[in-house]
Write a structure and sequence with these properties.
The structure holds two protein chains of two kinds. By secondary structure, chain A is α+β, with helices and mostly antiparallel strands. Helices cover about 55% and strands about 10% of the residues of chain A. Chain A has helices spanning about 1-55, 70-85, 85-100, 110-120, 120-140, 145-160, 185-225, 275-280, 310-320, 320-325, 350-355, 360-365, 415-420, 425-440, 445-465, 465-490, 495-510; strands spanning about 225-230, 240-245, 250-255, 260-265, 290-295, 305-310, 345, 370-380, 400-405. In chain A, strands 1, 2, 3, 4, 5, 6, 7, 8 and 9 form a nine-stranded antiparallel sheet that branches. In chain A, a hairpin with a 4-residue loop joins strand 2 and strand 3 (about 250-255). The radius of gyration of chain A is 55 Å and the shape is flat. The N and C termini of chain A lie far apart (about 175 Å). By secondary structure, chain B is mostly helical. Helices cover about 60% and strands about 0% of the residues of chain B. Chain B contains four helices and no strands. The longest helix of chain B has 21 residues, at about 80-100. Chain B is rod-shaped, with a radius of gyration of 25 Å. The chains are: A alpha+beta, B mainly alpha. The interface of A and B includes residues 182, 188, 196, 261 and 270 of A. Chain B: Belongs to the Asterix family. Chain B: It comes from Medioppia subpectinata. Chain B: Keywords: Membrane, Transmembrane, Transmembrane helix. Chain B: It holds the Pfam family ASTER.
């Protein structure tokens, strides 16, 4: 019974098992088919989307609508594909192929793959081939050849779009095709051209002004000096103005009674430099003429006198060595007859000022108060003050000088008659020379001047005392060393011994402190 | 009629025998102290042109050219022309080299 039961159950069992197996097989087949079909569908869809967005915007009738999230990528890829030189022709080709080969078989695959080889970059070929082979095997299973070929064609194009690893080279803008982008360069060149045009114009203007001044004053100069204009060469070849820079001209005149020489400096505005022209627009200055007359030693008495414009007076009091030393206080020249507050007086000896500021000078000061910058007579001229920390070891050399500084009238660059009107100022120079030559201080004045100068000298000696001591010490040491060497070189031993003894005694004497001898009174 | 150096009868102040030739003031202090602008501009132009060459800055090379021009216009007559000419040439070469290396148009340093 168990056996019969088992046999029946065995048969039933086997029937069940076989049923299960069959169903399993069928399900597996169905599943496989489903998976394959889903895969192929997905792939085709993707490529469809890629195709559509990568290649053309007007293939809506063929393709299904794409999901929005893939759109930006696709458009980016499309842009890339469009810009890249390789993508678009291949895409165009593929589109044509697509239309043609919907009907064709897989024997066209190779052709397409070749095309794709030609158009698409090398690294894509392997992948494409793999995909093609995948589709070949799957198409056998699925059986829809047309679809697969369409898929394949789309695939190659999609492959192009999917992998736009196209490097966009940065082609520099070419000069000839793109002038407008070089506008800064043109601006620079234009600026340079303007600068040089201004240089030539300014230089010519300055030259013209200088020549006009010289022509106007030539007669007066030649009547006062034997030599007008020194060009520095051995034999004076070209008499006249000397050009120092494009805006500074000098003239050296010499050969006159009691005058060593006269240096005339025409310091014009820097019209040749555009930068200076612009800065002058903000901070106006005028053309200036400076006349420095160096007198002979016996031609002038001892005094320091200066009458100047307020601003110049401040500057001179600070900068000039002699004014700083001898004329510390500023005074008004009113009591000497110079009215108005334009001028300031820096004077050492009152008597000198009263004599020098006579009626003629005062009238000229009044008439040309805009033109006259400063007038400075001194017998102690030594230039500019040195910096505080530099201490001179000896008193500076002094010269007897008359210094005049006149400003050109502001419109003299345009109107040359204004320069004619400046002639009286040069006449003032010669008048002053004669006056200074004849003027002698009274006894009190002279004594005062002497006292001042002596005081200055003593002060100077005191401040440099320490320095001079050091210098003297150094000299002594030097002398002793020289002697020693001489002694050593000397072969005579007797002499050497004597000298050494002397030296020893000297040292001893120096070392012992100096004691005062006190006389003690015995109680 | 006297030929002495006393005042002549016609009151002529000229004395041909007392002519003293012009002695230019000390070169170092006189010429350099008055106006240091050309020297500063010369150094600045050389500095800018080296910057332009080394760091490939176009604007630096152009500025060097301008500084060189300013130095030239402000220079003294007895200055060495070789110095100014060499700084000019250096700045021109800086400009040319910057464009040969990179033909793009110039961009100013404080824009983009």
């Amino acid at each position: 019974m168990g056996f019969i039961l088992s046999r029946r159950s065995g048969r039933q069992y086997s029937r069940v098992v076989s049923l299960v197996l069959a169903t399993n097989l069928v399900m597996a087949l169905i599943l496989e088919i489903c998976v394959v079909s889903v895969d192929s569908k997905l792939a085709s869809d993707q490529q469809y989307e890629d195709n559509e967005f990568a290649e053309f915007e007007d293939t809506d009738e063929d393709s299904p609508p794409a999901p929005p999230n893939t759109k930006p990528d696709a458009t980016a890829r499309e842009a890339n594909a469009n810009v890249g030189p390789n993508a678009s022709p291949s895409a165009a080709d593929d589109e044509d192929d697509d239309v043609e080969e919907v009907v064709d078989n897989r024997n066209k695959l190779n052709k397409e793959s070749d095309k794709s080889d030609v158009t698409v970059e090398d690294e894509d070929d392997d992948e494409l081939d793999d995909e093609e082979f995948e589709y070949v095997s799957e198409s056998d299973d699925s059986g829809s050849k047309s679809e697969s070929s369409a898929d394949r064609s789309r695939d190659t194009a999609g492959g192009n779009a999917k992998k736009p690893d196209l490097k966009i080279t940065n082609v520099p803008l070419h000069l000839r095709s793109n002038w407008e982008s070089y506008y800064l360069e043109f601006l620079m060149i234009a600026g340079l051209v303007i600068y040089f045009i201004n240089f030539i114009a300014g230089r010519n203007k300055n030259h013209k002004m200088a020549d006009t001044w010289f022509d106007v004053h030539k007669e007066l100069l030649y009547s006062n000096f034997a030599l007008v204009g020194d060009d520095g060469k051995k034999e004076v070849e070209s008499a006249g103005l000397n050009k120092e820079t494009e805006s500074v001209f000098t003239l050296w005149c010499s050969g006159r009674v009691c005058v060593e020489g006269m240096l005339v400096e025409l310091k014009f505005l820097k019209r040749q430099d555009l930068v200076s022209v612009v800065s002058n627009y903000f901070k106006p200055t005028t053309d200036q003429i400076q006349i420095r007359v160096t007198l002979n030693v016996d031609a002038m008495d001892s005094y320091v006198f200066c009458i100047a414009n307020k601003k110049s007076a401040q500057r001179l009091a600070k900068e000039m060595n002699d004014i700083n030393t001898y004329c510390p206080t500023k005074k008004t020249p009113e009591k000497y007859g110079v009215l108005g507050d334009k001028f300031v007086l820096l004077n050492e000896i009152g008597e000198a000022a009263s004599v020098l500021l006579d009626a003629k000078v005062i009238s000229l000061l009044k008439k040309y108060e805009d033109c006259i910058d400063y007038i400075h007579f001194t017998d102690q001229y030594s230039g500019y003050r040195l910096a505080e920390d530099i201490q001179p070891t000896k008193l500076p050399d002094v010269k007897r000088m008359l210094i005049f500084a006149f400003n050109f009238p502001s419109n003299s660059s345009r109107n040359y008659d204004e320069i004619e009107a400046m002639k009286p100022l040069l006449q003032l120079v010669f008048y002053s020379i004669e006056k200074v030559r004849r003027f002698r201080l009274s006894r009190e004045g002279k004594m005062k001047a002497e006292r001042n100068r002596r005081r200055v000298e003593e002060l100077f000696l005191k401040t440099t005392h320490v320095q001079r001591q050091e210098v003297a010490q150094l000299k002594r040491e030097e002398r002793r060393r020289a002697e020693k060497e001489k002694m050593l070189n000397d072969s005579d031993p007797e002499k050497q011994r004597k000298w050494e003894e002397k030296e020893y005694k000297r040292e001893l004497k120096r070392k012992t402190p100096k004691m005062k001898q006190l006389k003690v009174k015995a109680m | 009629m006297s030929t002495t150096t006393a005042v002549a009868p016609n009151n002529d102040p000229r004395r041909a025998d007392k002519i003293i030739r012009y002695k230019a003031p000390a070169i170092g202090s006189g010429s350099a102290g008055d106006d240091p602008l050309p020297d500063y501009m010369n150094v600045l132009s050389m500095l800018l042109s080296m910057c332009g060459l080394m760091l490939k800055l176009k604007w630096s090379a152009w500025m060097a050219l301008y500084c060189s021009a300013v130095s030239f216009t402000n220079s003294r007559i007895n200055d060495d022309t070789k110095q100014i000419l060499s700084s000019f040439m250096l700045s021109i070469s800086a400009v040319v080299m910057s464009y040969l290396q990179n033909p793009q148009p110039m961009t100013l340093p404080f824009t983009n």
